[in-house]
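Q: 7TM diverse intracellular signaling domain-containing protein, please. Structure only.
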Amino acid sequence: MDVWTTRWPGHDGVVWYRMRWHQDHAGPTGLLVEYASMAGAVYVNGSLVARDAHLAEPLSRTWVAPRYFLLSPPLLRTGENTLLVRVSGLAAYQPGFGTVALGAPSAVHAQYSREHARRYDIKLVNLGMTVVLGGVFLMIWLLRRQDSVYGWFALTELFAALYAANFLVSSPWPFSTTDGWQAFIAAMYVCAGASYAMFLLRYCERRFPRLERAMALLCGAALAAALLAPGWMGPGRTPWIVVGALFYYGSIGFFLVQAWRRRRVDTTVLALCVVTPVLVSFHDFALFMGWARGDTYLLGLTSVFTLLGIGFVLAYRFVSAMRRVEGFNVELGQRIRQATEELAQSLTRQHALELAHSRAGERLQLVRDLHDGFGGTLVGAIARLEQAPQELPPAAVMAMLREMRDDLRLVIDSTARECGDLEGLIAPLRHRSAQLLEAAGIDARWHLEGLAGAALESHRALDLLRLLQEALTNVFRHSRARRVDVRLVREGSRVRVEVRDDGSGMAASPAPGGAGLASMRQRAARLGGALRVDSNAAGTVATFDFPLAAPLAPGVQTP
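A: Structure for 7TM diverse intracellular signaling domain-containing protein:
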């Protein structure tokens, strides 16, 4: 390969290369022009064979791939033939001419295929792999923004793909000059090196804020110079390429040290996959700097090592994550079993407490029912016996015993039935209380309105009956009344209860506000109402209203 700057330093423009060969016959001949930088035209025996689109700025980029020509007999002579190649190039970008092969078409075309695969096809495959890897890691990063290592690798592949286009595209478009294109490529190399350094730093879980800010400033300066001063940066791209190379080699060296210290499987494998491209890059860097002769950059051939390394890293991280998930599931299962056992024990203790509380509540309820019902009946019987112990015939004593029996039956019946008719439940109480009050000379008048069809659950019905029974017992025992009015009026979905007497009021009672009144208030609250008692010298009025439907417990909502 000939680089003309070794003979004519600083020459920009055109150089002609001439080759003569002797041919015994004028049959078809294959011609391979391996390399021409940057653009050129090919002539055989004075006839134009091929010409690039642009032999002046913006120059075509023929050098990216070899060129094959099949020379037909009209172009050839028996004897001496002449090949002329015009090469247009710029001194800053290694202008020159490569080797030429002539011979049988099949042999020359086979050589062309090998050279094309080595210099172009493999780099095209490498570019495709780079774009795919960048796209995959970009999607991973978009789904997991917290894993910035994937985002930096995606950015590295994006810049690397743009830099790799330098070895594939045949035109400097969209730039109007070769300088503009080369400045852009140099800036992409700097940005790719910085992104790769950030990727390795984040993979090692390390941060160097000052160094990272310095790399960002250099990347910004490279992009600004490429856009604003391409005529200066393009020919002077070497320092920028050195900066990008320092990013690469410095970060890789740091990563190799970290991999050696950590001795983790993923970092070790990735380090081994990184070493091969580093060694090959020395060859390419020497070609770029002009320290070595050649026309083929080999770094693109090492992309498979990068693919293997990144593929292994992804698989390793995925397997590690799955193992952590499985371990978490096992631990979670153990904790769930432990919590279930603790909950079962707590429920057992709570159930025992609820049973004890229920039994205590049942005993207390039974005491209240006996006090309000059977106790009241017993008090009335004792009072009648005290008033006329000698005058009561056996039939009256039997009647009092039957009354106490009926009172016990009230407790049993109201407890045994799930739900009862309100009018039917009140009727026995009305009959028994009328006999008791008439014996004391108290006129009892009942007024029931709208209770037809109204029903109450057994425990609520018992609370209502006991409340009324306690109220009438208080009238009998303490009020000294001559008349009592009992009203139960249904108002929509509620029932209003009123017990009014014309006695002397609670102030004259020997034991006002005793256990009976407290029991009445509790029963009214259980029914869903609030008992109100107004008492003065003209009598006492006890009122409350309650819903027919059972009130919800606190915190419970209807569906």
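A: Brief note, in case it's useful. The longest strand covers residues 13-23.
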